[in-house]
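fold-stage: in
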Amino acid sequence: MNETLWGTYGRLIAALLGLAFVVLSGLPVRALEAIPVPLDAGAVDLTDSVDLYLRYGDRIQISTAPDAEGFVRRIEVRSREPGRSASWAVFALRNDSDEQIDRLLVAPYFRMVGSGIIRPDLGDTRIAAITPSQGFRPDRADSHDSDSYLITLDPGAVVTYVVELEGNTLPQLRLWQPDTYKENVNSFTLYQGMVIGIAGLLALFLTVLFVVKGTIIFPAAAAFAWAVLAYLSIDFGFWNKIFDVAVRGDQVFRAGAEAMLSATLLIFLTSYLSLMRWHVRLIYVAGLWLVTLFGVAGIAVFDAPLAAGIARLSLGLTGVIGLALILFLAFRGFDRAILLIPTWALLLAWLLAAGMTATGRLSNDLVAPALAGGLVVLVLLVGFTVMQHAFAGGAIGQGTLSDFHRKALALIGAGDLVWDWEVPRDRVFVSPELEEKLGLKPGTLEGSARKWFDVLHAGDRDRFRASLDAVVEQRRGRIAQDFRLRASDGHYYWYRMRARPILGDDGEAVRLVGTLVDVTEIKNAEERLLHDAVHDNLTGLPNRELFLDRLEAGILRSRVGDDPRPTVFVVDIDRFRQVNDGFGIAVGDSILLTMARRLQRHLKPSDTLARLAGDQFGIILVSERDPKRIAAFAEAVRRTIRTPITFGDREVFLTACVGISVYDGSEKRNEDLLEDAEIAMYHAKRFGPDRVEAFKPVMRTMGGDRLALESDLRRALEREEIKLVFQPIMRLEDKRIAGFEALVRWDHPRHGRLNPQEFIEIAEESGLIVEIGLFVMERTARQLGAWQRAMGTTLPIFASVNVSSRQILRHDLINDIRAVLARNEVVPGTLKLEVTESLVMENPEYAAQVLERVRELGAGLSLDDFGTGYSSLSYLQRFPFDTIKVDRSFVRQNGSGTRPVILRSIVSLAHDLGMEVVAEGAETDEDAIELYALGCEYAQGYLFGEPMSADECRHLLARQSAMMRH
C-alpha cells in the first residue's frame, strides 16, 4: 500500500516538475485532447484536430495527452536534419476498446481541394517522420500518391504522435481501416482507369479524324484531348507509374500539363471560331498569349507553383473571354459560335466548380473525381461539336458513329492487334494478322489458352500462366508484359501485351481483353546495346569491364564456397605494332581474330577469355587449381601464340609475354588481381620476348614503372609537363631558315626530360596519343602564327607536325584540323602534317580521301620517311603531298664515300610530281653542298641546329632578319 502511494506521489511530483520546466522554458504548454478511434469507423478525419507548429525549429517539446490514469509526460523530438527549422504536427489517439487497433495514417501528396489559385499547392511529400510517445515508430506503407503509415494502438492506450513535416502544409490527414482504405483506392482506381481509357480513346479518335478530315479544327481539338489525357494521367498518378517520377518532379509535370491545357483550349477556341476572319489583331493577341503559355510550361521546371498559378488564371480568363466572343458572334448569326454554346456552358460550369474546389469551398471527396469526369465529358462535347460542323450532311455528322466504331477506329489508328480471352469457355481470339506474321495456319492461336504454350518461349510460359491466373482470381488489375512467340520457321518475335479483365454481373472475370504490339526491333536493339557495352567489337570477346565483373564473381564464389580460386593471365603480343605497320591494320585485325579463336580452344566453359586492350588478352582460369596444371596451361598458351599464322603466301611468326596472378584468398579486389597480372606481364617484357612470369610482390617496385609512367602521362597535359621543341629546316638556296619541325618532349617530375621513344609507344597503346597530337598541333599553329606575324608574309616560314596512325584513322581528324586553323591565323599551306609512308599504305583508298580533305582545309602535307617501307612509287601520284621528306638512311654516305644512287632518283621523281624535297640527317657542310647539287630544296639536321625552344627559335629568326637587313 505504501509503495503504491509513494508511486502515485512520485508521478505527481514528476508531472509538476515537467510543467514547471515547460513554463520556465517558454515552450508550448497547451494540453492535447486525445481523439478516440472507434472500432467500427472506416475513416477518421484528423485534419482539424492536429496542432501545427510551423517553422518551429529543429526540436520540439510536447506535453502528451493524459493517459488512462491522467498522467501527462513531456517528450522531446528532434528533426532528422540538425539545424533545420522544421514544421511539426501533433495529435493524440485513444483506444477505448479492449482490442488492438491497426489503422493507416494517410496524408495525400496532392489535393485539388484547397490547393489555391495563385501559387497553388501542387503536391509534395507531407510527412518526413513520425515519433510516438510510446511504442515503436509506425511502419511506412507503400503508396505512390500519399504518405501512409501503419499505426497500432493497444487496448486502452493513449498515444501522442509528433509528426515532422516535409514542408509547411498538411492539407489532409485521415486514419483509415486498412481494408476500407484498400476498397476506397480500388474503387477510385477503377473509375480513374475508365476515365483515362475514355479520354485516351477520344484523343485517338480525334487524331484519326484529323488524318481523315485535314481541317485545322481537328488538330486543335485533338491537341486539347491529348492535353486533357496528359492532365488526367498526372492527376490520377498513372504518369508516376509509367515513368517513375519523383514527387517533386510531379509538380513540374502537373504545372506543365495545366499550362498545356490552357494553351490547347485557347488554340481550339481561336481555330474553331476562325478569329482571323474578324480582326487581325485578335490573332496577334492570341499568338502572344500562346507564346506566354508555352513559356510558362518552361517556367514550370524552375518554379512550378508560379507556372501553375499563371495557367489557372489563363484558363479562367480564356473561359470568360471565350464566352464574350461566342455570344457576340452568335448574335451576329455565326453558326460555329451557336454550336459551341453548349460546350462552353459546360466549360464555364467546370471552371466554376474547379475554382470553388481550389479555394476550399467545395471539399467533398467526390469533387476531384467528378471534375476529372467533367473534363472527359467536355472533350466528348468538343468532339461532337467539331464533327457536327465538319461532317454536316454525312453519316458521321448525323451521329450514326457508335462507341464501338470509335474504339475500332482508335485501334486501327494505333495499329495494335486485338487479344480476347473468354474465360468461362476458355476460348482465345486474336487478330488474324498475328498468325499471318508468325506464318501459322489460320485459327492456330484460337481456342484454349493452353494452345499459346506451344508457341510461347519456354522461359515465358510460367510467367504468362501466372499473370492470367492472378488477374482472373483477383478479378482486378491488368497485364502488361513482354513475351516471345515462335514463328513457323523457328524464329522468335517479341510481343507486348496490355490487357485487363472484364467482370460479369456476379463479379467474376468473364473476359480478358487487350492488345498485342510487336516490339521485336526494340528488344533486339536493347540486346545489341547491352552486348556491345560489355563485349569487344572486333572479336566479340568480353571487354575489360565484363572481365572484371566475372573476376569479381569468381573471387566471391571462392570466398563463400568450395569453388577454385581464380587465376588471371594477361597475354600481350610482342611487337604487334610492327605487324600493323608492315601488313596493315586489316591484317592485324585478322591476326587478332585468329589468336582469339586459338586461345578459346584451351578454355573450358567455366573459364573466361577477354580482350583487354589492342593486342592484349585476359584469361580467368577457374577450371584448374593444381599449380603444375596452371603452369602447363600457361605454356600451352605461349606455344599457341608461337604457332605461325599463314597469310596469303606468307607466314607471320608472333610471340607473347604472359603475366600470371593467383588469388590467394585475401581481401584483394578484382582490379588489384588484374593489376598484379599486368605487372608480371610487363616484368616479362623487360626480359622478353616470349616469356611467362608469375606475379611476386617484389615486382611492384621492379615492374610497375610502365604502369606508373602511363598513369603520369594521363596527367602530364593537365600539369603542362608536355613541351614542344623545334628543329630548324634550312632552305639550301639562300641558307635561310624555311621552317621548323615540331618535336614533343616530356618534362617528367622524377625522370627528367623524356624523348618520344620513351613514352610515345605507351601513348599509342593507351590512346593518349590523340590528345597529345591535338595539343602539339594547336601549340604549333599558335607559335607559327606568331612567327609569321613577326617575320612578315614574304616567303613565310612553315612548321611540320607528325600525325600518328590513331589520329589519321579518327573521323574527328578533319574537324580537329578545321578548328585549329580557325583559331589560329596562319598562311595556307604552311602548317604541314607529316604522315609516314607505312601509315598511308595501310589503306591507300581511305588515306587518299582523308588527305585530300585535309589539303582542302588549307594544311600542307609532307610524306615522312619516304623509301623506308613499301615500294610505293606507283601510289605516290595518288596522294596530294606537296613535300617529300627523305629518310636519313638515304642521305648518309655509304662505305665507298658516296651517297646512295637512289637519292638522286627520289629527288628527280619528286620534282616530276611537283613536290619539294626535305633531306634529313645533314650533319656537315659537305652534306649541305651535295644535297643542294642533287636538287634538294631543304635540309634538316644538327648542322643547322638542334631542337630548341620557341623563344630560342624567335631569337634565331630575329638574328637572321637583322643579318639580312645589313
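fold-stage: in (second)
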Amino acid sequence: MLRVGIGLLLWMFLLGLSAQAQDNCAIYVRGQVKSTNGEVLSGVIVRLTKSRTTTTDQEGNFEFSKLCEGNHTLTLTHLGYREQALVLDLHNDSTLVLTLTPDAIHLQDITIIGQQQAALSQSTHGLSAQELQENKGKTLAESLLAISGVSTIGMGNSIVKPVINGLHSNRILILNNGIRQEGQQWGVEHAPEIDPFIGDRLEVIKGAQGVRYGADALGGVVLVSPNPIDTSKTLSGKIDAIGQTNGRGGTLHALLEGRTTLLPNLGWRIQSSGKKLGNYAAPRYQVGNTGVEELNYSGALTYQMGKNNFEAFYSHFGTTLGIFEGAHIGTIDDIYARIANGRPFEDYAFSYAIKAPRQKVSHDLAKATWKHFFQADRSLEVQYGFQRNHRREYDVRRVASDDTPMADMVLNTQSLDVLFKEKNSSLGVQALSQVNNNTPGTGTTPIIPNFDNYTVGLFGIHQFHIGRLHAEAGARYDFKYLDVAGFRYRRDVVNADGSIPQYLLEDTRTFHNASGTIGILYHFTPTLSWKSNIGLAWRAPSVNELYSDGVHHGSATYELGNEQLKSEKGLKWINSFILNTDKINVTLDAYAQMLYDYIYAQPNPDSVRQTIRGTFPLFVYQQHDALFYGADLRLAYLINEQLQYDVSASLVRAKNLSLKNYLPYIPADRLQHGLTWRYKSNAEALSYLKVAHRFVAKQTRYEPNSDYQAPPPAYHLIDLVASKQFDLATDRKLAILLSVDNVFNREYKDYLDRLRYYTHQMGRNINLKISYQF
C-alpha cells in the first residue's frame, strides 16, 4: 500500500509539472502555403523541429498548437517544388503565409497514384474541372469517355462500364477512395457500383499495373478519389441539381463538411445523391422499361494526432435498373426476326415504372486507415476494407411472382493493405478474402456457383533519380486459392421428359504468378518529356468464365463457361510523349500488349438456347493468345486568350494469334474534338460556350458470320454546352450549365452495346445543371 501511495503522489506531482509546462507552451502557429503564382497548395508536408508533422488542407492551410517559446525549424516539402526550411523564433501566436517555388524540370513527376508512391513512368490521365462539371449526373463509365483511349461496353445508356485500350471488366481495377472495388464485375452489363459524386478526381492509368495493385490490373486502373476534407471552416459544402429531358428526370446531390470546435483536428464529411429517370428515348421511339432509380450516401471522418493520421469512411450505393423488355424473347423465330428488324416491334409509352426484367443492386463499403509518419519521407500505412455487394436480377416469371429474383447473389469481401514507404522505395503486403453465396428460393439454378476466394500478394517498388532521367522498377508475387460449390448441367444426357439433368460441382483451384514493371521518365526540355513503361500483369479466370451455365438475366444471354481455362498473362509496353507549353498541351500514348491465354466470350450465331424462360443468344467462353496495339492522342491548343481547340482520338487493334482472325467486341476508332470560347481569359473559369463533335467509325476488323449481327455503321454526333459561373461572395460560387447531347437527334448504334441487336442508343438529351458551392 505504501508503494501504491508513493506512486500516486509521484504521478500527481508529475501531472502538475506537465500542466504547468503546458501553460507555458500555449502558442499557436497557423499558416497557408502557396505557389509563386498564388495558387494554394494542398498536401504539403509541414514538419516542425522533426517531432511534429502535418499536411496542408484543400485551402493550403496548416496549424500547430501548444508550442513552447523559443526557436523552431519549419520545413516544407511538396513534390514538384523546391524544399524550403526556415527558423521561427516564437514568443506569441503567429500567422504565416509561405511560398514554394516550382521545380520546373520535375513538374511531370507529381502524379500521386491512389495510396501508392508517385508513379513516374505511368500514363495517367484525369478529368479537368470543366470536364467534371460537364459530366455531373452521368455514370462513372460515361464520365471517363472524355479521356482518350476510354470507351464503354454494356446495355443501353444506363448500364455501362469502362473499356481501356480494348480491355474491360475483370481486367480493369477501380479504386474507390483507395479501396479496390469488389462486386460482381465479371458481367458485361454489371456497371460499377460507385457514385461518381464521391470522386472529386477521376483518373485513368493505362498499362499493366499488376505490381502496384495486384492481379487483374491487365488493362489499367480507374481512380475515384475525393479531395481532403476542408477543415479550414466549421461548415462548407456544395449542392448539385441536374435535370434532363431524355428520361424526364434528374439527379440531386449534396455534400457538407467541416471541422469540430471541440476537436480542431477532427474533420467530418457527409454526402448523398439520388437519381430518378424514366424510359429513355431513341430518336423515333421510346425504349421500354429502361428507367433508373438511385439512392447513395457516404460519410467520412479524419483525425490527426501528432505523427498519426486516422481515417474512417463508409459509403452505400443502391440502384434499380430496368432492362429493355424487348430483349427477353420467347421463340427462336422471334429472336432472329427482332435482330433482323433492328428496332422494337412494339410501341412503348413513357413510364417511370421499372418492371421485370430489372436489376436491383446495393453495395456497401467501409474502410479504416491509419498512417504514421516516422519522418516526412518515411511512413507506414495500414488500411482495412470491408465490402458487401448484393445483386438481384429479375426476369418475367411464367408462374411465380415477378418479385422473386431469378438470381440473388451476395458477395462479401475483406481486404488488408500494409504499405511502408521510405524516400524512393515502397514495400507492401495485400491480402483479400471473398465469400460469394447464392441466396436460395429463386427457383432457378444460379449461373455461377458459391465460392470462397483467398488472395495474398507481396510487392516492392524503387525509384531512381539522376538529373533529367528518372526510373522505377518493381516486382510482385500473388497467390490465389479458389473453392467452389454448385450445380452444372450434364449436356451429354437427356431425361425421359426432355429435361437436362444436373450434377453437383465441387472444385478447388490454385493460381499464382509474378508481376513486374520497369519504366523511365526523361525530360528532354522543361516542356517536352518521354515516359516508357513495360509491365507484366496477370489474372486468374473468374468464376463465371470457368463454371457459368445458364441464363444471365441481366444481359438476356445464355453463358457457357469452360473449366479448362488457364490464367491470363499480359505484357504491355506503353510510351507517352508529353508536350506542355503556354499555347499547346499534347499527350500521345502508343502501346502494344501481348496477352497469353486471353479469355473472351464468343457469340455463336449458329445456335441459341431455348429455356422455359425464353430464347437467348449463346455466348461461349474461349481462350487464345492475342495481340492488342494502338495509340491515343490528347491535344489542347490555345488559339488566343479566350478560344481553345481540343482533340481526343484513339484507335485499338486486336488479333487472335492462335486462330489468325479478329477478336469480337473491340472498340472502333474514335475521335472527339471541340471548340471552346471563354467569356474571360481564364482557362480555369467555368464560364464558356462549347461546340463538340463525336465520331465513331464502323468496326471493320470483324469476322463475318461470327456474331448475330454485323457491326453497325459509323456515326457522327454534335453536342453543345453553355456554362456560366457566378462569384456570389467569399467562398460562395454558383455555376449554371446548359448542354444538348446529340443536337440533331441522330439515330445510331454502338458496336459495344449488347442491346444493339434490338434497339438504338439515346436520342437528343437536354441537360440543365446548377451547382452551388459555399
